[in-house]
Every structure is written in C-alpha cells, then in structure tokens.
Amino acid sequence: MKDPRSLLISLFDAAVAAADPALLVPAYLPDPPKGRTVVVGAGKAAAAMALAVESNWPGPLEGLVVTRYGHAVPCERIRVVEAGHPMPDDHGLQAAREILAIAEGLGPDDLMICLISGGGSSLLSLPHDAVGLEDKRAVNAALLRCGAHIGEINCVRKHLSAIKGGRLAATAAPARVVTLVISDVPGDDPAVIASGPTVPDPTTAGEALSILTHYGISEPASLIRHLKTKACETPKPGDPIFANTSLSMIATPRKALEAAARLAAAAGVKPLILGDALEGEAREIAKALGPMATSCARHGDPVDPPCVLLSGGELTVTIKGDGRGGPNAEFALSLAQHLDGNPHVWALACDTDGIDGSEDNAGAIITPSTLTRAYRLGLRAEAHLDDNDAYGFFEGLGDLVITGPTLTNVNDFRAILIVSD
Amino acid sequence: MKDPRSLLISLFDAAVAAADPALLVPAYLPDPPKGRTVVVGAGKAAAAMALAVESNWPGPLEGLVVTRYGHAVPCERIRVVEAGHPMPDDHGLQAAREILAIAEGLGPDDLMICLISGGGSSLLSLPHDAVGLEDKRAVNAALLRCGAHIGEINCVRKHLSAIKGGRLAATAAPARVVTLVISDVPGDDPAVIASGPTVPDPTTAGEALSILTHYGISEPASLIRHLKTKACETPKPGDPIFANTSLSMIATPRKALEAAARLAAAAGVKPLILGDALEGEAREIAKALGPMATSCARHGDPVDPPCVLLSGGELTVTIKGDGRGGPNAEFALSLAQHLDGNPHVWALACDTDGIDGSEDNAGAIITPSTLTRAYRLGLRAEAHLDDNDAYGFFEGLGDLVITGPTLTNVNDFRAILIVSD
Q1: What is the ipTM of this complex?
Q2: Which residues of A are less than 8 Å from B298 in CB distance?
C-alpha cells in the first residue's frame, strides 16, 4: 500500500476526476444537427463544461453560459458570464434573458446543448413576465424565513419563473435539446438540479398555492393571482414539447465515490461506500463516523482493514465562533478529537469543488499523530473547534488540502482509511 | 421475512437477551472455594446479576450489591441496596463502606464475586480516608464545569477514592476475586467501567495532579496535598495483588449487536454492524444514517437489501424545548423526517436498559407511513422535534416501544431495516 496520506489524496483526485467536465463531456456529445448548434447552461461547472463542448465539437457553435463569480474559464466561441450565487443578481437575470432569446430563435433542424450543474438555480433566475422581480424575491425570502423545505421552495420558484421547470426546453422546441447534468443534490433528480430548466415539472401551480397557504403567505396579491392563472403552469411529464429532448447525468456524487472505491480496491484497500448524500452538523457526524472507523479496526465491522469508508453529501456548520473553515475541515478536526490518536486511522474530508466554505482550501487531512503534533505546536483542538477555526488548526499543522477551484461540484468527499496492525 | 415491525422488535429482544444476566451469569461462575463465598457489586444490572448468582450457586453465599433506585430485584441471600445515580448519595456511600468491610474480612481460601455494570462509578462512591466528601465532590463538580474529558475525570476520581481503581481487589487480597462485567462504555475497557474497583489502574497520581493543574484547579489545598502522598496511589498493572483475580466481560454492546445480526441473517436479512459506540447529537446522526439507508435502497451500498444497519453507542440530546423523550425517540423522529416516507425503510431505536431518558419507553419505531399517519392525526414532526417532544409524537402514533426496565444495560440499540422493491 502507498503511504496513507498519498493514498487519501489519490482517492480524492480520483473522485474529482470522475466529475471533471473535460474528461466526461466528449463521450456525451450528440451528432451535429442539419441546422445551427447553440450551447447554453448554468451552474458552478457551466464554463468548464462549455469549454469541453467547444474543444470537442466538429462544427460551428455559439452560445452563452452563466457561472459563479470566479468560476469562469476562457472560451472562444461560447460567451461565459459570471453572476451572483447563492443570491441572484442582475448579471444572472440578464444572462437568463439572453439564454431564453437564444432558445426562442431555434428551428426544427437546430440543436441546443444545455449544460447544467449545481448553483444553476440562483444563477439562472428570471421571473415570469407577469411577476415582478421584487415580489418574487419577497416570496422567496418569506419561504426561507418560515423554514419551508427545499422541495416546497423549488415548487413555488418554478411556477414564478420564466425559465425553470421545463420552460427553457419549451421555449427551444421544436429544436432538439440535449441536456448534460452534473448533480450535486441527494437523489440526483434532474427536475431538482438548477430547478430543471429542460425537464418536465411534476409539481403544479395548485401545489405552489397550497404551500404558500400552509405557511400563511398571502402577499403580494398580484403574485397569488398569477399562481391561479393558466400561464403560470409549467410543462408536465408526457408533454409532447419534450419529445425531442434527452438528458444525461454525466457526473454524480455516487460516480465520484465509485471512482475512489475502484482506486482503493486496486491499491488493496477494501472500500465501503456508506452513502452519497450524508447530511448533518459536521462536528456531530464525526462522532458517528469515528466510531465506525474504530469498529473496523477493533472488530472488522462494518468492513475488515485495510479498508476505507467513503461517503458523500453535504455537511453543515452552525457558526458560533469567529474562526475560519468550512464543514470539511470542521468534520476532520472533530474526527481527530474523537479518534484521540487511534494508530490505525487516517482521513481526508474535502469539497469536490475545491473550496471548503469560504477559504482557499478544499478540506483537510488527519493522521494518527494529528493531536500530538498539534499539542507540540500549541494548537488546542478543542479551542479551535469551539471557535469554528478548523482552518487555523490545520493551517498550523500543514494539513490543509489545497487544490484551487476544480470547476466542478459533486459535493463533499470523505475517506476514512483504516489500516491493519 | 416476518413483517418488518415484528422483525425489528425481535432484533431488539435478541440484543437485550444477549445482555441478560439471568441467561449469561451461570456460564461464568467459578467453582466454589474451600472457604467462604461473598458477592459484591455495583451498577444498574447489579441486582439482576446478584439474583442470577444466588439462583445458580451450589453452596453458601452472602453479600451486598448496590444498584440504581428502581433497579432492585428481590434476592434471598444477597442484600440489595438502592442508591443515587448519576449523583451519588449517602446510600451509595454507606454501601461502599460495607462492601469494603466485607472484602477486608476475607482470607486466602475465600472467594469474592464482584458484579460490575454501567452506573457503578456513581453508585460505589467512597472518598479515601484522607479526603473529605465535600472536597471530593467540589473537585468533581469543578472538573465537569471546565469540560474535562471523562478519562481525565476518572483518573482524578480513582486517586481520591477508597474503593475504585483496583482498591477493592487490593482490600480483598489474598482472597480470590472473580469479576463479571457488563460493559456500557466505548472500547469496553474494564478499568473504565465503574472506575474498575478490581482492575489495575494504569493512571498515576502524578497524572491526576497534572489534570487539575491543566484546568487551573488548585483547591481544596488538603486534597491537592493528598495527591502528592504515596497513600493515594492506586495499585498498578503487574502488582502481585492481582495475581488471584480474573475478569470476564459477560455482555457488551458488540455482543448484543452480534446477537441481533445472527437473528437477522437467519431471517434472510443481511446485517451490517456499523459500530458499537456511535455518539453525537441524536437528531444530527439521523441525517447521516438516514442517507446510508437510502443508499442501500437505491445503490445497494453499503449493503444490498433486504438488509439491516445495526449500531450501538449512546447518542445525546441537547434540550431546547419543553417536550418529553430521550435520544432514541428523538433519533427515530429525526430519521422519519429525513427519510420522508421512503417506502423501503423501517427502523427501531431503543435503549437496552428499557428506559430512553426519563420516560417509561425504551424507544420508538418508525415505518414508511410514520409521517402520513402523523399528519392525519394532526401531529407535526417538525414541531415535535423543535420541542424535544419525540415521546408525544410516537405516543400519539402508538409507536413507542415499552418494555419496562430490562435490568441490564449495553447502551442504545438502533436497527434500520431496508427492504427490496
């Protein structure tokens, strides 16, 4: 076996590579059409996906994609626009308008390639003609305030949008629409990722109204009226408008975990994928996953060492301190504390997008000596955890993982490696 | 396969049976000695263990065990005393004195059977002669206040005690000492369970002093002075005083999980033991274990359905609301919310001691219809969770698991059952 630290880095690299648009997009490109080809898209990976399309496309091509600030890569034929995320801004609004205009201009011989990834919902934000921007934002904020479930919020959003919930595909019809998706949501539902601009919407305007009623939201009146009109209804599954559309899920958290699992197995380390969509408070989840690792070392359950416990999903941090660091570093710090120097366990926790929260690191690595090395440097694990300063802790140790933005995103990646005696 | 609900109850019953003193103790009883046999012990299972000894002992027998209020069972020859837990009280103090006196009276031909289980540390509380009771309590409270680790607290406690950290065995020498232990601690270290009254103590008085210094505890001065004397040192591993002692771990969380795993396998359901010592905030851990179940159903990872994810350990609840319910019911409620009616997943979470926190239930069961049944009854999962009222939620549904005190304790038992399509 490689040394544990290098192996963990290799596993993370394999997971990110399994979500790399440059490597994945070419195999999913359709044959060129008789007519024009346009490329549109939205999401954190949109620019990288666009570059992969134009680098591999045999014919003429034009288009526009919108990505998050800092996530652009230079394209020659496709315009790349940066916009606000997670709060939509005017750049996103304008980009959405232009993308709709591009779709409107297409005829039956034309092809629209639509590139969708996480973050697309905020980046591709355009209210329906009958809905004011401020009204839409007010309802959105009200839903967030009263703790509505993300599925409920998306249902309302789709029925107030000019582009989501299949409306982009409806606008492009009768052109052929080929959608390539990189998933960052639990369950990988294409109707959920970026609110599914090219995907039939199974939810109804009636449901959107019930949700607002349920949460006691009765204003603005004009918006409520709009939800009672026929115009606000999204295109439904089975609608002939989708006859000439296809969709491929080119990368998912699960595929990234499988790539890491294959590499681990090849290195003689038994992989166990715990799940691709773990959630929960980072420091708490470490208290459950740590003992799973300890159980491997002590009892050979859930899997015999040498082994690696792989998991994806998105953990959260409830910020109480003043420190720096995202959920991956905080998970790693809490895990180190809980393992308390267990000599058999190494671990890596990183965001596959390369940015763990708001700092410059993807995540962090822990080793059996993490706590003793920290102690010698005067770094107190407990104090750093109390202050939400996992970044400072691992920076001091030299155990941050820094990759820069990877220009893709299949959520967090955690690998806990257990070696034999 | 049995119906899922009955199967889950059977798995829990199997786990509890695997920790039942009446079933386990007989096989571990030594041959009667030439001289007297005395039975002493402390812990939540002490009375049930004592009854199992006297029901199966061929010769004369006497003794005293101390258990928690409500955990006594009538014994004929062994006295059973109830005392305070988790806060020690005078009953525990007096019982500890009597147990030491019993041990003191033993000779080389005598046998002491020592019955240890969780809770024994509080129940068997007696300060060293040189230490005042109030002083010992003050230091204990100070350590708890400043967030000292349980290992640190136990190290200090052992060096202030007249009975812990091997001192009971030292007092009984040269009599033979046979200790039977039911473990409720991660790692099943016999030196930790009930602070190991018959087990060599690897920690030192010097370490106890360093811990107090580390947390800035410099009073009471008399107590600090005591920690610098030779008399306060506990007997160490290798001390000849332990030559005539033996210890058997008759029940552990792991053995309980294995019993449930065997039963599941016999029922055609693949068991996967995730770990025997999971910790963390109950509602958060559900957000990690729920997606593991979903991953089984969707991807066949970490294990193919029909399967059951088994785990032990002790979750916690940070109380913010006014409701009723312990960590098992709260875990189950959060899990139901997270699974959101997933048609493939059933689950049970119960404390093996039969009491989940402070109510009369061992825990609760969830089914795919938990949320819809609750909705019809006007029970809102989210509101009950916010109010820490999982008991009220499952009481309304008729989905509490009620066994009464089981008179043993190998911590929590969680079984998440995933069925095929």
Answers
A1: 0.91
A2: 187
